[in-house]
Amino acid sequence: MKAKNLFAFFGLIFVLLMMTACVEARPVDGGGVITETTDRDETSNATQSTTSPTATRPSQSGVTILADGSVVAVQPVLPVSFTASGRLLELAVEPGDVVAAGDLIATLDDEALLDAVTNAEFQVAQSELNLTQAQAELDRLLEWEPDETAVAVAEANLVAAQAQLENAVASDAAAGNSVTQANVSVAQAERQLADAQEAYNTAFDPGREWELNDPFRKQFLENERDAATRNLQFAEENLRVARANYSLAVAGINNDSALNAEASVISAQQALEQAQKPPTAEQIEAAQLSVQQAELSLQQSQLSLEQAQEAVADAQLVAPTAGTVLSVEVAEGAMIGTGSPIVTLLDTTQLEFHTSNLSERDLARVAPGQSVAVTLKAYPNDVIEGTVVRIGAQATGTVGDAAVFPVIVSISSDELDIRPGMTGRAEIAGE
Question: Are 394 and 320 members of one domain?
């Protein structure tokens, strides 16, 4: 009876040993050991040293895959620099400061730049005034209508001049001037007319039409032609006056008073014609050209102002993205060149957990979108939820006889101060 009990005892021990052999111990990086229930198909690796991690065994259905790794920033470190050069006036951050996108980092000396903006603003204001005046003159010509008041005044002046001429002729009839003097005046007027005619012919020479196509010669030629036309008309009128004076002298009724009155009549007639005469096509074209030039000048002034304002803005260096200041490369007062790094930022708002020892045997059970629980050594009692983003395309090494591939896990936690480089473990629910 005792022999049977002893036999039963050893039989129970044997069964327990067989059950224990079905539980495999697997060491992982960092000294921890992962236990999984598996089919016994190869020799246990439990005897390997925990300081040299081995590859994980193929995961079975419902098995959690464990892997060590570290926190990595999604974005690389970012050197931040000015797009302008100058003396560094102020540095607003220090290493370790956390900045948001748009926060001021540094400022260049912008005194000269602000003066340039002031000058550019003055030029814009002056250009706007010039354009307003040019446009007003063009509108006046395009919308021209006879000024009834000016016409009435010119008509009244002509009537008065004619009356003065009649009175002068009547009062000086007895005095008379010498026929010789009147004859000389006629000769002079004829010579003046000949000179005016020659100048007119020169101004309107067909061979000079090319000057109208030259922006620098056109205005001079137009002025010359206007003057030649007026001088010719004036010379013709002077000749008529001279001949009239000669006739009066011959009749014994001409004198200086009558001559002056005749000139007044001619002047009044010209004033009346001018008040009634609409603007010419040449005058309108010249006014339109003035408006175009004023518009171009305004555009150039506005461009200069924009450039000056951009230069002032470039003197303010702001953070292009949120992050932590890793280092400051310059000191206040230093001369800064375009593109020279001022600070180096690290965006710590976008973080990932990269595994370091996940065996290729487990890749078949890992896929993007799977939930992951990450525990960092800095926060051993806090589980950080994550999601598999992707699996590295290339192995990063081997553990035992198996290659290891990085699994990239997105993580986010507003409650914990997670920093790149922190290490921990990921628990991936294998498929």
Answer: no
